[in-house]
Amino acid sequence: MLKKSLKNSLVASFLLITACGPVPNFNKYMVHVSGGSGFVPAFCSGLDFTGVSWPDSMVDTDRSAMALGLDISGSYEGANAWGNITNNFDGQGLSLGLLNQNLGQGSLQPMMLQMLTNHRPSMASYFSPSHFSSLENMLLQFRDSSLSTLGTNSEVLSPLDMPENSIQLEAVTKSGSGVQWASDNLYVNGRFSAQWRRELVAMAGSWEFISI
Fold first, then answer.
1. Using CB atoms within 10 A as the burial measure, which of 75, 95, 109, 204 is most buried?
2. Quick one: how far is CA 1 from the chain centroid?
3. CA angle centred on 99, ends 92 and 51, rounded to 5°
4. CB count in 10 Å sphere of residue 121
């Protein structure tokens, strides 16, 4: 465990320096983690992790390294961090969140399905009743179509998790449980419905969705 913690600390330190530029006074970039083992490298983005549930297996340095990795990767996806959102310009239907998971590749539906399963009342609170019903129907259709295609009751629903099934699932993600649903519901004359945009961004910024 000590060796792992030391290795993670060195990795996080390296990432901090390369991501944030030269650090003349490295001590000012160290923060104390409440209840943790001591000081760990801070990350430079200011991503808000308030209320986020971390896996119990992750120690302080794991969390710091993960947070910094998310900061660096997310910075390529847009300036709005957890609230990044992109329309159907690339044929993916909708891209959402820090890392811009999307409907076209089947990487967003599994996250929203976990939200629906584990935090349904909270998820519903971000949408109008009609919008939530429409979104829920799309997700359940995706789940049922995916499970039927995979021939399993596994919770692994994304073709990215099972690359050998990506061709089989392409029709699922492009159909009413993906891109076509987004095209039919989220846009007016090719532009985001303002209400849908607000609702999706609000859900993406919730501690439950960030944790997922």
1. 109
2. 29
3. 130
4. 6
| Pairing mode, strands 85-86 and 39-41 | unpaired
Distances (CA, A) of 135 to 54, 96, 149: 27, 14, 21
Q: Can you list the positions of beta strands (E) in the chain?
A: 30-32, 39-41, 85-86, 95-96, 101-102, 187-188, 191-192
Q: How far is CA 37 from CA 11, 40, 69, 104, in A?
A: 17, 9, 21, 42
**How many Cα neighbours within 13 Å face the side chain of 90?**
12
The Cα 74–Cα 9 span in angstroms is: 21
Question: Cα–chain-centroid distance for residue 209?
Answer: 7
Token pair for 110: 């599994």
- Pairing of the two strands 95-96 and 85-86: antiparallel
**Does 162 or 85 have the greater pLDDT score?**
85
**Can you give the C-alpha Rg of the chain in angstroms?**
19
Q: What is the pTM of this model?
A: 0.73
| Average pLDDT for 126-155 | 82
CA dihedral 148, 154, 156, 158 (to 10 degrees): 0
**Neighbouring residues of 47: CB distance < 8 A, sequence distance ≥ 6:** 67, 70, 71, 74, 81, 82, 98
Which of 62-71, 106-115, 180-189, 203-212 has the least mean pLDDT? 62-71
